[in-house]
Amino acid sequence: MDKNRNQPFGNFNSLTLFTGLCLGASTSVAHAADNTAQKKEETLVIQAQAPSLYLPGVSADPKFTQPLVDTTRTVTVIPEQMIKDQGVTNLTDALKNVPGVGAFYAGENGSSSTGDAVYMRGVDTSGSIYVDGIRDIGSVTRDTFNTQQVEVIKGPAGTDYGRSAPSGSINMISKQPRLDSGLDASVSAGSAWMRRGTLDYNQAFGENSAFRLNLMGEKTHDAGRHNVENERYGVAPSLAFGLDTPTRLYINYLHVHQNNTPDGGIPTIGLPGYSAPSSATRALNSSGKVNTKNYYGTDSDFDKSTTDSFTLRFEHDLTDNTTLRNTTRWSRVKQKYLLTAVMGGASNITQPDSNNVDTWEWSRLANTKDVSNRILTNQTNLTSKFHTGFVGHDVSAGVEFTREKQTNYGVDAITPPAVNIYHPISSISVGGLSRNGANANGQTDTFGIYAFDTLELTDSFQVNGGIRLDNYHTDYDSATVCGGTGRRAVACPAGAPTGTPVTTVDTAKSGNLVNWKAGALYRLTSQGNLYANYAISQQPPGGSTFALAAGGSGNSANRTDFKPQKAKSSEIGTKWEILDKRLLLNAALFRTDIENEVASNDDGTYSQYGKKRVEGYELSAIGNITSDWQVSMGYTQQHASVKEGDTVAQDGSSALAYTPKHAFTVWSQYQATDAISVGAGARYVGSLRRGSDGAVGTPDHTEGYWVADAKLGYRVNRNLDLQLNVYNLFDKDYVASINKSGYRYHPGEPRTFLLTANVHF
């Protein structure tokens, strides 16, 4: 089997052997000066160990200057090869390789989460997703067709990227041109009319330039749900000049268009913990679960998004040990959707025949979004290695200028008709989105400056530290159409007709955020070490949503008179590179304390005395056990709780919602023969508590579950291989996510298969 085909930097084995032979040859020549006859009779054989395609060894982000084994943080890298082996096509599925990370939250009330709605270590981390170290805004599903690897950094990441979630960050690394020529393409077909094609074409030209083109197209039905269809395509051309020279220029463009059917989930009737919301609806206690394939939306429902991103990166090696980088990116994500979901309270049920549950109906709520997210950033980074006396330094420093803008266009309200609980009919039209001028606009300008240094004090001991200062200014305004009734009704200005947009919020917030981190590492042997790390991270009011509430009003953490949320994280651990440094083992104990959380007072007002804590341990292993056996596995046990403030779990406990106490994931692949490879994986997600609100009779938690996957690969020849992936091998029925009220949930996908033909030239 051609094991070099999928290596990220071309034919690495050949390069390693060539280098080794050259070095060996120079030694032989020196020896030949003393004994030419002996040289003629001897043959020099150099053996080079192929690198693990599952263990990249280093982060692709220059802010992390040390190898992964010497990085004093819990970092999980999901490489391109593992993404291919598993047949993964989007970020959320790729993150299933990281224990305790997933899309566990289905939204609040009738609102539903869309896209990569990721929870990690007890916190919504959707606003801390980055592409090549630059924030990626938007509640869309991110395809992996142009992704080299995914890096998950746990613990507060404010020092690394500025304002971010206290749980960590997720960084997708894009593919770049390289100095070889070749084509990799795939065609896939699977369950529920799944069709997908990709192309990865790289062409070197001249001596130091290259062009790369990645294409993707996909269309599928959801195997476990009626009426849910997804369609997307993407194109990502890139150019590179000056490769293998001191001065390099990269030009990248990404365009992705999606046209999907949003899914609001299904009622939790019949799940463990469910009880009828009133005596009049007691028959629901024995009526059983609804069909998990039921679709409660309408024919009008849609979710369309367009992503455009242009990146220009310049790199110059000032010396052999000092590199200057400058990156400019403009990116825009536009999204429109209409999503209809059931509302499950007792007051929402109608009973045409009170004795026949099959006739009962639930009201529906239409969720709408018409939003444009834009970002313009210029980032300059300098990395340098040098000595001051006997102390070695590995420095990464830089400045960043970023403008982020979001416009939420106001649209007219839509009132869909009720839907039958057990026999929903979706073949109805409720119209489309109609803008009404009641828009919300947010803009955040940020200037950031940072400096990190790793000091090598001895061969065995090093310390590291860093500090980042961000100055930010956020402007936010929002309007509401006047007229109407209810406590949120807005009076119309004199002479203005009903429906006129009236500005209700117009505010701003400025401030400085100081984040820092410090760590130490001691090498026990050449293979293993002990490390410790402490970090401070802050997130200002508004976070990544830009929304601000006027100072002194509201119960939102976005009030302008509130302080930034602060997270303090400590971690101690050990990392070991074993088996000729092909397998990396990591064990870590961690604790994150989150302060300045909003909590209610006895008089009905709100203050920032709330505190949360997430603590536990994590174990992981990734790399090669043998040259033919690759593995990636991880386990975490985490205790996430409210230390002070309001209860967030419906069961009345202090536990944080949507955070499994136990989580495990493993994927293993074995090259059985030159032609046949087999793979298998499993993941466990423990019980999840849901959020707290006024819902009655709904489940307060979900049950833990195991899911297994498998893969069989067959190499036809050097240009063609076939791959069969089977997901949810034992057809496990489970709850993948649940909404805050517990009225709705998303069932896990049933057993499906995907057959892929991969060609290489």
From TrEMBL:
What are this entry's molecular-function GO terms? siderophore uptake transmembrane transporter activity; signaling receptor activity
Q: Where is the TonB-dependent receptor plug domain?
A: 68-168
Q: Where is the signal peptide?
A: 1-32
Q: Which family does it belong to?
A: Belongs to the TonB-dependent receptor family.
Q: Which organism is it from?
A: Mangrovibacter phragmitis
User: What name does UniProt use for this protein?
Assistant: Catecholate siderophore receptor Fiu
- Entry's localization field: Cell outer membrane
Keyword Iron assigned: yes
Short name of one Pfam family: Plug
The protein's topology relative to the membrane is: Multi-pass membrane protein
Q: Provide GO CC annotations from the record.
A: cell outer membrane
Q: Which UniProt keywords apply?
A: Cell outer membrane, Ion transport, Iron, Iron transport, Membrane, Receptor, Signal, TonB box, Transmembrane, Transmembrane beta strand, Transport
* PANTHER family per UniProt: CATECHOLATE SIDEROPHORE RECEPTOR FIU, FERRICHROME IRON RECEPTOR-RELATED
Superkingdom in the source lineage: Bacteria
| GO term, biological process aspect, one | siderophore transport
Indicate the segments forming the TonB-dependent receptor-like beta-barrel domain, all copies.
275-729
